[in-house]
């Protein structure tokens, strides 16, 4: 079994980004600038946004963090997104999800200018991705593709089983893994919470991408020996042996599955770090204003 090491791969990609930012600015380009919007104080969202802002500093990007109380109105939030759309100093906009129940995530995402949609969640970005046109790819699926590319894993002809159908991971992942390129060229099966014979299907998988948001959901009896395991889950569970009283685990039962498989991503220090790389690469692209990405 080989670990797919998010620390190693993200360090490599971040060095590349840092250099590209320097070159871009040396040629007269403006410093890339990411604006992040955080509504409320969900601890996980706070941690994710904090990490994104910290990475901006590390890579030489500017950043703006806008924080709002959880009871702001949808109309106000959309007006703030529109203000950022019209601000030429801002290249990329991300609205951390989930939003409070009274705010429609779809309406807020739809308000982001497609040229600044560095999370790749806007219908235009997702539509272009579906059609194979150049665009911002959703950050987590993009990060997973970068990870597979780094380790030169040839997924051509593989059976790829994706567990979870979210708009931000599972659904776009089915498109990227089936597209005509490598990584990609896979035969994809999408499974979700209503799939009846999940174990029967996962046992035929050459690669499993687990993104269902349930701790240790994929167990050893569901995995074919030699399979590749990509674990997207970040779940906090109680652990009395830790000072904090809890720890992070993935959607895969790492201890039982790892000895069986050929490659596996750990949690933490796996896919999570790759998501940041995807976001930062998109923000740099937005700063360079690649014409075909806008509008
Ligand atoms: N919530 C969970 N994952 C993400 C992500 O990649 N981007 C944003 N904006 N919110 C998220």
Task: Provide key terms for this protein.
295 residues, alpha/beta, Rossmann fold, 2 domains, six-stranded parallel β-sheet, three-stranded parallel β-sheet, 11 strands, binds guanine
Overview of the molecule:
This protein is α/β, with parallel strands linked by helices. The chain has 2 domains: 30-115, Rossmann fold (3-Layer(aba) Sandwich); 139-273, NAD(P)-binding Rossmann-like Domain (Rossmann fold). It contains 10 helices and 11 strands. The chain has helices at residues 6-26, 43-59, 74-85, 105-111, 123-131, 139-150, 170-178, 198-202, 254-257, 271-287, and strands spanning 2-3, 33-39, 62-68, 92-95, 159-163, 187-191, 207-210, 228-231, 235-238, 246-249, 263-264. Strands 1-11-8-7-5-6 form a 6-stranded parallel beta sheet. Strand 9 and strand 10 (246-249) form a beta hairpin. The model has no long low-confidence stretch (mean pLDDT 97).
> What is the β-strand count?
11
What share of the residues does DSSP label as strand, in percent? 15-25%
Class by helix and strand content? alpha/beta
Number of helices: 10
What compounds sit in this structure? guanine
- What fraction, in percent, of the residue positions are helical? 25-40%
Distance between the amino and carboxyl termini: 44 Å
Radius of gyration, in angstroms, nearest whole number: 19 Å
CATH class of the largest domain: Alpha Beta
Mean pLDDT: 97
CATH fold category name of the largest domain: Rossmann fold
Spatial order of strands in the largest sheet:
1-11-8-7-5-6
Shape: globular
